[in-house]
Amino acid sequence: MKYAIAVVLACLPSVVAADGFLRVVNDAAITQALSDATLVFDAHTMQHFAADGDTQYITDRMSDGRWAARGGQYCSVWPPSDVWTCYDIEIGGDVVRFISSDGFASEGTYRK
């Protein structure tokens, strides 16, 4: 997975963040980085991103939602809400960082 991400990021527009992470600003690169991937956020929390746009957030219970790359950001919606929320994406090695509009960051590591 690391090799595929490195190739995508090398070929598509991104911006180097201050801490060396790459901010991905291209929908195709975001889709490539997340499709069919599972990220682990902590010992009890993970999220799977299906290529068809389905996503499952798994913690003490599972939530089903939808995800998409829109305007250079990762966006998701979690029913019963119909409101999409979007985040900037930064990638550093095996870590994907999601940054909300208020600057809060959440990091997940690709599950091996």
Largest sheet: 8 strands, antiparallel, barrel
With helices defined by DSSP (H or I, 4 residues minimum), what is the helix count?
2
Order of helices and strands: HEEHEEEEEEEE
The class by helix and strand makeup works out as alpha+beta
Question: Largest beta sheet: what is the strand line-up?
Answer: 3-4-5-6-7-8-9-10
Strand content: over 45%
Strand count: 10
User: Could you say which overall geometry the principal axes of the C-alpha atoms support?
Assistant: globular
Low-confidence stretches: 1-10
If you average the pLDDT, what whole number results?
87
Radius of gyration: 13 Å
- How many angstroms separate the termini? 9 Å
The helix fraction, in percent, is 10-25%
What can you see in these coordinates?
The chain has helices at residues 2-11, 27-34; strands at residues 14-16, 22-24, 37-42, 45-49, 54-58, 62-70, 73-77, 85-92, 95-99, 105-110. The protein is 16% helix and 49% strand. The radius of gyration is 13 Å and the shape is globular. A hairpin with a 2-residue loop joins strand 3 and strand 4.
